[in-house]
Design goal:
The protein has 17 helices and 13 strands. The chain has 444 residues and is an alpha/beta fold. Helix 2 runs parallel beside helix 5 and helix 15 crosses helix 16. It is globular and about 65 Å long. It binds NADPH dihydro-nicotinamide-adenine-dinucleotide phosphate (NDP).
Length: 444
């Protein structure tokens, strides 16, 4: 059995009931095959793959908190410090009822390579809890966040592990967590990113993942002889990533015609009205039915379905495994030329393979959505310097980072004889730097 197959079997056996983690490992290891096969003896002797697929540390803890009626609730919380070879652990905190250890491990594993691709000194980690902030009062959310941080604060710090937002963790949650960290640890430091502007946050962090997705998409299109202006874009999700992806796509001259949430989706052939969408999602935290009620050109549909809309470019920006093989077939049949992942692992493996085989340009999330974590790293730099950079400065650094990410994965794919396979290119480019650092640091 090859080393890659051996390690994958070991992951499945030792991590039962964690299908998303298996999926993420399989995707990465498959595309690393040419690199591993060429160095098999050395990597096997150093157990490099076994070490890279095993988190350095996994924290599991309970979070008790009291609701507005005086009822006590208990949530399960996680922080996985996956790989610190190239810098302090960095990765978001997801608050969603679907969160479990397998999901956090898949996200933490992906984060290692994503962070490496940014070219910045950040290791891979991820965390969260099966808490659902939806429908909870501000006081209840604060109670949860304070209890969560009371435990987590023992294991994180500006130079050790710097969490950020993710699904369900926005500016409000980060604020409550930061306040509690400061109160318990008594230090004012950049221990979290995605902070509010009045207490150490970075301009352009809110926009960074969505904007970065479009900077990379634009570069990928250019490299393949296309222009984004005038294209029709289909977006899923209506959260942080989706909203700012839609905004930048519009700024670059494309027309965005869909948005979705966990209950339904909207099709607006005139182009999404972003101010209205922001008002509904960022301010009122309401459902998309309100969008359709306020805008006569929009149609609301229950359930899923954005991928059935004819488009040139598809941007999955909601959650994992939301673009399935049947969706990929619809996209191809409708003439889609590019898919770029704003979310983490939104496209299933068979859908990805189908898109690639159909010559659709495909940018994987670990490259395409790296703008968020890259800007978080810029926030860390600003906190360390005790300075704040202008929006334009952060945005221009973000753009350069995304262009460089595309170039490095394009080049890695070409170097290993897989030109145009940006999944392989991203995994290889991300892996080589981490593997090199791990080798240099000895058996740790
Ligand atoms: P938000 O919580 O702001 O938004 C998530 C969106 O996806 C919402 O519209 C939500 O709908 C929808 N959604 C969530 N879960 C499901 C589900 N199971 N089925 C259908 N729709 C769902 O999160 P973000 O925009 O921050 O994150 C979106 C994705 O991008 C995630 O995969 C995240 O890991 C990834 N990402 C985020 C980064 C960031 O900087 N924020 C950085 C890099 C990656 P509803 O409101 O109804 O739940």
């Amino acid at each position: 059995m090859s080393y890659v197959d051996e390690v994958y079997s070991m992951v499945v056996e030792k991590n039962p009931a964690q299908p998303e983690f298996h999926q993420a490992v399989k995707e990465v290891l498959e595309s690393l095959r040419p690199v591993i096969d060429a160095n098999e003896e050395k990597y096997r002797k150093d157990a490099l793959l076994e070490r890279i697929v095993t988190p350095e540390r996994q924290l599991l803890f309970r979070v008790p908190w009291v609701d507005d009626q005086g009822q006590v609730h208990v949530n399960n919380a996680f922080r996985v410090q996956f790989n610190g070879a190239i810098g302090p652990y960095k990765g978001g905190l997801r608050l969603h009822p679907s969160v479990n250890l397998g999901i956090i491990k898949f996200l933490g594993f992906e984060q290692i390579f994503k962070n490496s691709l940014t070219g910045l000194p950040i290791g891979g980690g991820k965390g969260g809890a099966d808490f659902d902030p939806k429908g909870r009062s501000d006081r209840e959310v604060m109670a949860f966040c304070q209890s969560f941080m009371t435990e987590l604060c023992k294991y994180i710090g500006a130079d050790t592990d710097v969490p950020a937002g993710d699904i369900g963790t926005g500016a409000r949650e980060i604020g409550y967590m930061f306040g509690q960290y400061k109160r318990i640890r008594g230090v004012y430091e950049g221990v979290l990113t995605g902070k509010g502007l009045s207490y150490g946050g970075s301009l352009a962090r809110k926009e960074a993942t969505g904007f970065g997705l479009l900077y990379l998409t634009e570069e990928m299109l250019k490299a393949n002889g296309h222009d984004i202006a005038g294209k029709t874009v289909v977006v899923s999700g209506s959260g942080n990533v989706a909203i700012y992806a839609a905004q930048k796509a519009q700024e670059l001259g494309a027309k965005v015609v869909t948005a979705s949430d966990s209950t339904g989706w909207i099709y607006d052939p005139e182009g999404i009205d972003l101010e209205l969408l922001k008002e509904i999602k960022e301010v009122k935290r309401a459902r998309l039915t309100e969008y359709a009620a306020k805008r006569s050109s929009a149609h609301y549909h229950e359930g899923r379905g954005v991928w059935s809309v004819k488009c040139d470019i598809a941007l999955p920006c909601a959650t994992q495994n939301e673009l399935l093989l049947e969706d990929a077939k619809l996209l191809v049949a409708n003439g889609c030329i590019a898919v770029a992942e704003g979310a983490n692992m939104p496209t299933t493996m068979d859908a990805t393979e189908y898109l690639q085989a159909s010559k659709v340009l495909f940018a994987p999330g670990k490259a395409a959505n790296a703008g968020g974590v890259a800007t978080s790293a810029l926030e860390m730099s600003q906190n360390s310097e005790r300075l704040s950079w202008s929006f334009e400065e952060v945005d221009s650094q973000l753009k350069n980072i995304m262009i460089n990410i595309f170039r490095s994965l394009d080049q890695a794919a070409k170097e290993y004889g897989m030109a145009g396979n940006y999944v392989a290119g991203a995994n290889i480019a991300g892996f080589l730097k981490v593997a090199d650092a791990m080798t240099a640091q000895g058996i740790v």
